[in-house]
Amino acid sequence: MSKELPNNNSNNNNKKQQRLPWLRAENDEKSAAKELVIDVPAASDATTNQDSPSSSKSADPTPPRLPFFSLFKYADLVDKLLFLFGTVFAVGAGSLSPFLFLVFGNLLGAFSLITTNPDSFTPELNKYILYFVYLGIASFFLNYVGTLCWRLTGERQSVRIRTKFLQSVLHQDVSWFDERRSGDLASRLSTDTFIVQTGISEKIGLALLYLSSFLASFIVAYTQGWKMALVITAAVPALAVVLVTTFTLIAKLTNESQTDYSEAGALATEILGAVRTVYAFGGQNREGDEYEKLLQNSQGIRRKKLVSTGIGFGMVNLMIYAFIALGLWYGATLLVSGEYSGQNVLIIFFTLLIGSFSIGNLGPYATAFASAQGAAYELYSIIDRKPSVVKTYSNNDEPATKIPRFSQEIEFKNVSFHYASRPDVQVLKNLNLKIPYGKTVALVGSSGSGKSTIVQMLQRFYDPVEGGIFIDGVNIKNADIRSFRDQLGVVSQEPVLFRYTVKENIRFGKLNASNEEIESAARAANAFNFINELPNGFESDVGERGSLLSGGQKQRVAIARAIIKNPPILLLDEATSALDSQSEAVVQEALDKVSIGRTTVVVAHRLSTIKDADVIVVLEKGEVVEIGTHQELLSRKGRYNELVSLQDLKKNENGDESVAISSSKGLVTDVIRSSKYLKSDSSVAVVEDLETGLPASSSTEVPVKEGIKWSNLVRLFGYNLSQVHLLVVAAVASTGLGLAFPLYSVFFGKLIAAFFDPNVASVQDQINTWCLIFVIIGIAGFFATFVQIVFIGLYGSNIFIKVRVLAIRNILRQEIGWFDEPLNNSSNLGEILGKDVETLASLMDQTIGQTWSSIINAIAGTIIGFYYSWKLTLVNLALLPIASIGVALETEAQFGSNDKTKKSFEEATFIANEAIFNIRTVVSLGLEDFFLRNYTKELDTAFKVSYRSCFIASFGPAFAQCSQFFNYAVSYYVGGILVKNGEITFQSMNIVIQSVFFMALAIGQVGALTPNITKALLSANKVFKLIDRVTLMDTTVGAKVAASEMTGDVALEAVEFSYPTRTETSVLKGIDMNVKAGMTVGLVGASGCGKSTIVNLVMRFYDPTSGRIAFGGSNSYDAKDRQLESLREFMAVVSQE
Fold first, then answer.
1. CATH number of 500-540+550-597: 1.10.275.10, 3.40.50.2300, 3.40.50.300, 3.30.40.10?
2. Are 851 and 731 within 8 A, CB to CB?
């Protein structure tokens, strides 16, 4: 908007040359093009906020992360109560695990009664079986409530964090946005908040469960025998050091990688917001390459994170088995010496074993917490940031002064100013200026002289570096900013309209305005007639960024919005410079009308429009060089006279500025032969802006509910077949880890029998053998864990870079009409590229590897069970539906809530992005709270659905965790009968039951991981839908246009056209045009008559409904018969911005 504003123009141009290096080359290359297309677009505030020094990756090699407990800093009292109950119940659930083995040890001792006292065996067996049942019921209740509490608080906090983040962003001072890219902020709101939510919800409950299981196991072990427990736990500090080091390093690397991903996300947002410009310059491949390059930059950090995680958790695995070996060896020593019974040794051993495994299970949760800490640091920093421009307090921390209605003068006293990002460029130098009440003051000067900076400072977007700005004697630094801005009406060069109706857009100037006030403002702005002729009058949607209105129509709606609150001060910043001559005349008439009786500050593009101003101020390099009326300044023959003379010279060279076509060419009658069919200003929807992005539509399409497609998982793996060796090796490692548990069951069954062997002397030799085996397993486990994590991670990271790149490349292959669909707006597409692909990527952390290991565990355990006792195994398999029911319930809850919350989340994202990308307009109109309320409303709608689904989904972990208790109860009851009847041995029974126990643990782990898999597969539906969509206008098909074929001739032959989303509205009817090579052609007509639609058709953004666009003169060919990429190489586009 401001020509001298560094961050808005000069820096923005530099930024585009850096971010879009192809643009400069493209312009140079096309300077010799034979086809010249000139359009008159309008833009949004987004372009002013794209450049950002801080948006680049931080130079800090060790980015900070948030302390863990600070993740919950925005929790309220209800959340704290949920923390309390969730923690108590999760800890209680975890504490039950060692009691399982306490009962188990005593039960094993009861089997000796089979030979010593057979009659008392069955009552004793029944007693311990009931203990298992009681523990199972308690486990279900504790797990259900604990999981539910953590899920509920996770949902509640995520809504609050998202809301607080947007609230903070919208209430920052405008200068803060000069150092940040809007795309980066939108990406953090979408992706980083999701990562934080993952780290503060049910994963904490599961982590507490495993942690409490670890602690309770050690407590039980010490009560059973402190000597053996002490020897084993002496090594725990080493385990703690490894875990803390691993988690710290993961958090650090996660924060670094998120910075890289945020930069890529910001670029994607910029591309999608300017898709027409990208298409016009043939930049699809270049932008796709740049996006891929940014993603590839994160690979180095990703590899470091994987290696660190693999070594860390591999060491944990090794140390656990070393502890097992140590415990077994020392337990055997105590047994042989007579200090402990076999029953005591096994209780201690198994409780410490389950405790050690519990620590090992913390891996994926620790990774999620570390990721949340890294992502939360920047999020929470922005939330906590206090803006320098406070709304209700002055700079002296005293209540700000509410300014009564302006009635005297505006005064700049010794004002000096430079932008924070360009401190070496002085924009205003000791400026002194008085603007009297009720007068029209025009600011003129060359580009960069400070005109628009003054307008922005009057809105208090920036404060002076020195001096002050006073309204009726009150320094605006000490004024209540809301009451001050309520007295301003602003009309800028590029009017920003929001995706609401015409009525609502006008009402944004005064939120409590009545319908009568809205109509009155529209009349004053010369907008009433064209609004009434729209399909739905004042209730007509204007589209995203006002794309369904022409430039002149948008400007008049913006004028109505500016004056509806009857402001005493009107700021007009080049309000007509972006319009064609006819539209300018209509808008200028409206501006002249609404300026009467107001203090008006005008920044003019054409000096002829301000010659009647009461005062004209001439600026040069930030200083006032002349001041006076038009005639006074002309008579002085100074700088103003030079500026007027320059414009008069250009006017004489170009002809009458009110006529857009050179009359010497004689084109008005020869070129447009069917102008009678052009739609009138007020009844057509026109896209005039190459920067507008994605127009809204009247489509009422209802999304179809899609189920989980397991084939998508296979397809994902297929995206990296060139590195399939990584997957094969990782699968072998995961298989090894999965087979470890069934092998344990065999070893443990034999161990149990050894500890109850009456020949105590042989126990030591047997145990020493098992100790060696466990050390070997630990070493193998280290390498298997490392390979699983690193190889799956590497394979997956390449996949998801490819998925992101495939998605954005296919997006950039779609026809422009596809972007007109409401579901394909830039916010939704950015959400899929960010959050949904991130959800898919979670599969490749440890989820898929652990799931595969668990499946192998279950299969191998079943085989071993059948080998030793098919009867007992069949009984145990019949119990598996207990856990499976829980998994099914959780999956259905996830699936059902996804469909219901998707629309609300997408709408909330769009609202937030629209506000962030148009922040200057939002701030100027005081709409921060309006957008925040609407955003919160959509979030609350989604939360209510998620809230209800939590009650069902929490059954999954509860069933999965309690199943082991019920399995033990049934297994030992049936096993006891079989042993008593002599059908199986004591050793075989224990091997089968241990294999079933580890199988139940595997099912429990699958149940815990099911939400991640379900979410990922639901996200896959959306991602692959993008990748698979076949464009209706492939730019690569057809014969290439030879240089000899492009003569410069272009013709429209019987062209009829309606936009794909508004098929009921005919924009062009039977248009015939014949433009010969070398002609200069101007398309004129009222706003919305179809001028830019013709440009869009010539550029082949759309194809005609009927008729054709022909090139080549006498040897003409239909544009559809040539390769679109090569066709556009012969065209150049000059847009408004």
1. 3.40.50.300
2. no
